[in-house]
Amino acid sequence: MKDSTKIIKAGLNKRYAREKRFKFFGLCSIILSFAFLLILLSTIVGRGLPAFQQTYMKLDVTLDEETLGVTSNSSSKELFSAKYDKVIRNTLYDMFPNVSDRKEKRALRNIVSNSAAYDLRDKVIANPELLGTTQSYWFLAKDDVDVYMKGNIDRNLPESDRRIKDFQLVWIDRLIAEDRLEKRFNTVLFNAADSREPEQAGMRGAIMGSFLTMLVTLLLSFPVAVAAAAYLEEFAPQNNRWVDLIEVNINNLAAVPSIVFGLLGLAVFINFFGVPRSTPLIGGLVLSLMTLPTIIIASRAAIKAVPPSIKEAAIGMGASPVQTLFQHTLPLAMPGILTGTIIGMAQALGETAPLLMIGMVAFVAEVPGGIFDPATVMPVQIYLWSDSPERAFTERTSAAIMVLLAFLIVMNLIAIILRKKFERRW
Amino acid sequence: MPINTILITLVALLIFGYFLGRKRSLAVAGSTAKGYSDLHSLPSYYGYMVAVWAGIPALIILLIWSAFSSSIVTSMTISGLPEQMQAQSKQQLGLVMNEIKNLANSGLIANETDPIKQAAAEHYQKLTHINTMAKTVVVFVIALIGLVLAMRLIKPETRARNIVEGVIRWTMIICASIAILTTVGIVMSVLFESLLFFTSVSPIEFLFGTKWSPQTSIRTDQVGSSGSFGAIPLFVGTMLISAVALCIAVPVGLMSAIYLSEYANKNIRAFAKPTLEILAGIPTVVYGFFAALSVAPFIRNLGESIGLDVASESALAAGLVMGIMIIPFVSSLSDDVISAVPQAMRDGSFGMGATKSETIRQVIIPAALPGIVGGILLAASRAIGETMIVVMAAGLSANLTINPLEAVTTVTVQIVTLLTGDQEFDSPKTLAAFALGLGLFVTTLVLNIVALHIIRKYREQYE
Question: Fewer CB within 10 Å, N- or C-terminus of chain B?
């Protein structure tokens, strides 16, 4: 053997080991990324799943006309403002007659959510014959009770460290023994708008707000983006300064931090043009400017992919360039354009930062009915809830994240299916 | 009429105009010697022409009118107020105007006790009424004039298709130019407000000051709350968190990209690439929640268990989570540039007896380095501009330190906190947010331009 071969042979094992190590590092980093993803999702799901259940409490309420201050002949206006909270309170006092301390009495009143009185009101107004009878209804329990029922308060902790005190535990134990506490599917989460009380807070307002905002975004950005992409691909003159400027701008806008778009919305749309704050309209305006580059870039790629032979054939048959575009190029490029649009909309749906600038962080306790109503959107709702100190909001935040992720997954799945089904290789 | 009704009626008018124009064109058409119709364009183009003539001027007027009418009505109402009320400061006047508007919209003017406000609200109501009436009338008159003019234009020799296509082309050019308009809008808005800000705070103090406490006094005689606007701690904080993020994202992202493009077989790649992309698709607010709720306490406990004092809003927690978020950016960009390295270079290296890792380290990475650097710069600009993670997981008080275990604040956090509170728009506090926005915009713009330039240069090398 020659000397040089010997040297190489001697080094081989070391080199192979290094090779293996390198490959292992590569595999590790992939696994690490997956682990991050898994931890993230499992944390959210683990925290959020309990929020899909909510604790309800059964109370036997006596709809005493005297307590309510109405009679069966009262007008609906009087029925509306009757003292239902007093009925609920009396029911609770009757159930636990030996509570006399003022502080404990207040705690007892707070064992059931204050929405119980409104529930009762709605039931009586719908059916005034209930007056004077005793009915048993399920009412929302207060958030602290709910947190305890889900096992998130350890009763072995010293009393001073617990939100639920010993005397409240006695009540809860008795209610459980009498089958008066029950966890049910949380319909409030999907049917109610935001509220300061965790047990009454739902994300319907935010879902509706997101929907309206997305609608504005789609209606504004889709036509503009397709027109811009078609112009840049099909009509724009080569080596034209204006066209170059447009292209540079589109590429740069795609990388501008989203919060800067919020500043733009605040300074230009709100302060200069007087678009109302906190509305889906202003949110949609800002988000459409943000998604434009994404959709334009995707649409350009889709238009570019249409083979020139088809366009040339159309021109050869006497079609004008505009006719070729609308009758041949765009229909063939549409699956790609739609895929890009859906991906852009999914991005916009998850966007939070610019919306904070334009007043969409306001607390809105009503479901918005139109694009001029104050509204908030899902990611902002998540931000607002995550900021709330109540323990019960933590799990609701996670649940809201799960709902948002579900929307995003559905949108991306549609995009993937669309691409798989209609993508054509020429 | 409210604006929705105007729009719907206008659209109905346009559809009507389309059919009218089409019918008219067929009516005026003669026939040529060979027996064909002598219309220049297809009948539908005459219909489109009528719709365009009727619609576009009306829509433009409607847009301009709606954009400016509310401020005009407001200033007219203000000029109707008594002299001493007009002499108030701008913000007080704004408050009064809000009250008047609410009063007018609530329909409870009769209940108001202040006669001045009552009169003003009535005045405002009247003005808005006149405004809507005038808008409706003007828009429809213009639409009708357009329609009639276009109808008179319909003759066999009118080049309707060319007219319509010209309009379409111009619309497309305008749509494409919105990108420029947006950039101009961004620059203008942050620049003007920043200039206003720099009239009260000197740019030198802003750029080189090391103390940031934007709390200006509410009363002028208050002590120690003049507000200082030195942005150095913010920029250092931003850099610190971004650096932590890049320390996570660059090695992990780069190694993932190398493994996926050089080692992994087809099946693993088909599964792993989209899964990595999921990390980029998760909304940042979710990362923020995760960072604040899980990662920050975890790091704090970890630090405590080894005897380190970690702030509960440490830069490390925010940076770590941000790093996870930008892994896919680094990996997909590096993947692109690594696959763009010509196969011949790999073959040459293998032919010389190099192992795969030696080829990667000594041939592919050096060849792809400019592209990788470009990708890292893009990721850095992403990290600098990222908002929600730091808003939820980083601190609020400016702290000039480079210790990642302490709480720092960032530019984006300060923009959000300065602008989400309730305060008047012209105070230095809100204007400072725009100055910070300008700094952010310029920084990311420079990073992007440099990155794109490097990437393009690199591509040219191998094409």
Answer: C
Which tens digit of pLDDT belongs to each residue from A76-125? 788 788 888 888 888 888 888 888 888 888 888 888 888 888 888 888 88
Q: Inter-chain contact B172–A16, Cβ cutoff 8 Å?
A: no
C-alpha span between B275 and B265 (Å, rounded): 16
* Tokens 């206003």 belong to residue: B196
For chain B, helix, strand, coil in percent to 5 are 80, 0, 20
DSSP 8-state symbol, B352 = T
Q: Which two tokens stand for residue B31?
A: 């026939």
Inter-chain residue contact A408 with B356, CB threshold 8 Å: no
Superfamily of domain B228-462: MetI-like (1.10.3720.10)
Reported as a single tens digit per residue, the pLDDT across B54-104 is 999 999 999 888 878 877 888 888 887 777 777 777 667 777 777 777 777
Asked if the C-beta of B169 comes within 8 angstroms of chain A's C-beta atoms, the answer is yes
Q: How far is A235 from chain B (nearest CA, A)?
A: 8
- Name chain A contacts of B433, Cβ cutoff 8 Å: 263
Give dist(CA B332, CA B261) in Å, integer: 10
Q: What is the rounded distance in angstroms from the CA atom of residue A169 to the CA atom of residue A149?
A: 11
Q: Which residues contact B241 (CB under 8 A, 6 or more apart)?
A: B315, B318, B319, B322, B383, B390, B394, B408, B410
Q: Do B433 and A263 touch (CB under 8 A)?
A: yes
Structure ipTM:
0.91
Q: Which residues of A touch B271 (CB under 8 A)?
A: none
Contact B437 A408 (CB under 8 A): no
